[in-house]
Specification:
single chain; mainly alpha; 2 helices; TPX2 C-terminal domain-containing protein
Length: 70
């Protein structure tokens, strides 16, 4: 019985992989056919001064130190 379950698992995995490949192929085909398809980033990257990022890191380090002491 255990051998059978291993075989069925392998078969299921094989089917799943085939399904994923066909989905991938289909999406690639659709993208090729859609001439104006282009992926634009939804949000512009947020530019922050590095000092503010460093400050957040410093504060987080302090928090972690307090937690380890407590």
């Amino acid at each position: 019985a255990p051998k059978e379950s291993v075989a069925s698992k392998k078969r299921a995995e094989k089917e799943r992989r085939a399904q994923l490949e066909s989905i991938h192929a289909e999406s690639q085909r659709l993208l090729r056919e859609t001439r104006k398809a282009s992926f634009k980033p939804i949000a512009e990257p947020v530019y922050k001064p590095i000092s503010s990022v460093l400050e957040k890191i410093r504060l987080r380090k302090l928090e972690i130190q307090k937690m380890s002491v407590a």
